């Protein structure tokens, strides 16, 4: 009896709960989005121009050293002829060459006139003779300039030679003679045994001095380089 009553009450409660309007579940509205329409990929056209190589640069012709030297000689002759007012044919070319020399020599500097760092550069030296005098032109290229007008190489050389005897009082140093010479090689006419010298003509001077009552012979070039052929103690 008790079990039937309990079952009856349970069924009744279930029916009442389902019938109650406030307890009914609220349906949820779900919106389904339509799937997007697939788009076609855009086509990008790239047109390649036919390959055309750039034109190669035209190389600048390099002047040959011998051509530069020839122009330097012609320039020196023309300049000296204009200075002296004589025909170019009366000017003799003693020597013309590319040489490695101190930068102050290339620029025609003097120690007391221009301070330069010790350095050697390649330069051109042109030695000319006109009307019995020697003229020296130098430069780094064809634009040579007159370094020693009207025979002044002699005074420069004499000054440098005298400096070699600075231990003597000036009154004991006398210049006996100065002679222009073209030496057959860079030994300046005083070769030392066992040494090799460039076989090129070197214009210069033979200087005879009297130093402290002794006769001394000095051989030089035109830039003031010199060798004492007579020992100073002799």
What labels describe this entry?
single chain, 234 residues, 2 domains, 4-stranded antiparallel beta sheet, 8 strands, 28% strand
Describe the structure.
By secondary structure, the chain is α+β, with helices and mostly antiparallel strands. It has 2 domains: 64-151, no CATH class; 152-234, no CATH class. It contains 4 helices and 8 strands, in the order ααβαβββαββββ. The chain has a 4-stranded antiparallel sheet. Strands 5-6-7-8 form a 4-stranded antiparallel sheet, with helices on one face. A hairpin with a 5-residue loop joins strand 3 and strand 4. The longest helix has 20 residues, at 65-84. The chain is elongated, with a radius of gyration of 52 Å. The protein starts with a helix and ends in a 6-residue tail after the last strand.
Q: Hey, roughly how much beta strand do the residues contain? A: 25-35%
User: Which term fits the overall shape?
Assistant: elongated
DSSP strand tally: 8
Largest sheet: 4 strands, antiparallel
Total tally of structural domains: 2
* Computed structural class: alpha+beta
Query: Oligomeric state of the chains?
Result: single chain
Rg to the nearest angstrom?
52 Å
Element string (H = helix, E = strand): HHEHEEEHEEEE
Point out poorly predicted stretches: 111-115
Rounded average pLDDT: 76
* Helical coverage, percent range: 10-25%
Gap between N and C termini, in Å?
165 Å
* Neighbour order of strands in the largest sheet: 1-2-3-4
Number of helices in the DSSP assignment: 4
